[in-house]
Backbone:
């Protein structure tokens, strides 16, 4: 209750919009972990934001006004930001970048907390993790956490499905280049059939439009039409969504 | 001595960037007026003004914010020419369809757009700039020429109003009785 009063609506909105300092974010996230009501407020704000984006996602210029794609058409970062969804699930979004990486609490812990919040469901826990940046450290942590969760679920015979969705620069996670990371992703996918690998079709299309080299993806990776559409669809189907 | 070729290249680059902004401007304009023909006119006018006043853009990196500011002026001019006596920040345009009809059609997108239309224009503009264009609060403050605190309070009130209207909405899929929208954590 104290946290409810402590954090104003403006403060929570500023968190959703990434306007808070690191220390304020950490303070809020720590409180949200313990306070279900606060967590719910954050989720509601995030959902409203998602819905607004959904409502105007398909609003396009009349066809005769469409600009012709240019060979060296520069791709503005803000457009990339908008196009690659970016904006979901506030209470968890900062979680991955928080210092708890070194902690034992990982996806496994997250799923446990989620189960606690909804103990009566018999549905599988469906978790989508979106990766948008080409950051080897994040890739490594993501794979560590994913493996730990899949292993724990298997040991306890629990029904968990994880979908990794790579878009923008995160597409490099699914590159088939025989690197150690590539071999690891492929190995994990072969080991666990409840791990799905998906790549954003829009990202690949944009790379082609910009005449950039389109990476060869792992055969195990499935290309979905667009990351945004995939996230929205999966959220509608009750998937938990985390972006790292 | 100023190199004329440099001016030509800058001008060409400016036009290219302006052209690339059309889609973003159109989406923003539509989210404010919810009419394709008006949005199209607003974008055309914005582009024309931007071309005429290109020298006023001091920081090329701030092109988007600058364009949003011009679009805002065009939109205000449009509203003034139609409703001179109203305070446009408080103005709520009447929607053409009723929420009940849209609910019946299970058209989530339409429902959300309708609820956006129910926001006052000042609130709607802030939501659009932050959620659709990814503007920071500071950028919104400059584009709309309002204090940062006003940006925050408008955004907060707008999202609260949208949450109250939208989070109750539960479309029913044929053959599937599960809730379609649910809390994710």
Residues:
């Amino acid at each position: 209750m104290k946290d409810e009063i402590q954090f104003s609506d403006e403060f929570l909105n500023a968190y959703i919009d990434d306007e808070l300092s690191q220390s304020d974010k950490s303070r809020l996230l720590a409180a949200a972990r313990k306070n279900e009501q606060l967590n719910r407020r954050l989720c509601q704000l995030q959902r409203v934001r998602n819905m607004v984006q959904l409502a105007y996602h398909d609003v396009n210029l009349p066809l005769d006004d469409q600009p012709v794609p240019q060979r060296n058409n520069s791709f503005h970062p803000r457009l990339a930001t908008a196009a690659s969804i970016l904006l979901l699930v506030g209470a968890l979004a900062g979680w991955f970048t928080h210092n708890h990486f070194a902690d034992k609490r990982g996806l496994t812990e997250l799923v446990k907390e989620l189960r606690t919040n909804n103990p009566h469901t018999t549905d599988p826990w469906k978790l989508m993790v979106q990766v948008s940046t080409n950051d080897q450290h994040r890739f490594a942590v993501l794979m560590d956490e994913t493996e730990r969760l899949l292993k724990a679920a298997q040991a306890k015979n629990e029904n968990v499905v994880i979908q990794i969705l790579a878009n923008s620069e995160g597409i490099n996670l699914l590159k088939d280049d025989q690197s150690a990371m590539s071999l690891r992703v492929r190995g994990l996918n072969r080991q666990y059939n409840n791990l799905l690998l998906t790549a954003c079709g829009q990202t690949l299309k944009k790379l082609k439009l910009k005449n950039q080299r389109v990476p060869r993806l792992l055969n195990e990776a499935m290309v979905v039409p667009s990351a945004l559409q995939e996230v929205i669809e999966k959220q509608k189907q009750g998937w938990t969504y985390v972006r790292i | 001595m100023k190199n004329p070729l440099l001016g030509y290249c800058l001008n060409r680059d400016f036009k290219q960037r302006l052209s690339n902004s059309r889609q973003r401007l159109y989406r923003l304009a539509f989210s404010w007026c919810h009419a394709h023909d008006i949005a199209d006119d607003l974008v055309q006018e914005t582009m024309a003004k931007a071309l005429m006043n290109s020298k006023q853009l001091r920081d090329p990196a701030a092109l988007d914010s600058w364009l949003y500011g011009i679009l805002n002026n065009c939109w205000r001019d449009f509203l003034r020419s139609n409703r001179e006596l109203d305070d446009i920040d408080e103005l709520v345009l009447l929607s053409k369809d009723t929420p009940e009809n849209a609910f019946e059609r299970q058209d989530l997108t339409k429902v959300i757009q309708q609820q956006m239309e129910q926001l006052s224009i000042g609130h709607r503009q802030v939501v659009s700039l932050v959620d659709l264009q990814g503007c920071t609060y500071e950028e919104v403050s400059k584009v709309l020429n309002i204090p940062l605190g006003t940006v925050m309070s408008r955004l907060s009130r707008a999202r609260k109003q949208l949450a109250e209207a939208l989070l109750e909405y539960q479309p029913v899929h044929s053959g599937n009785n599960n809730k379609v929208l649910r809390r994710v954590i």
In short: Chain B touches chain A through 47 residues (CB under 8 Å). The mean pLDDT of chain B is 78. Residues 95 and 114 of chain B are 7 Å apart (CA to CA).
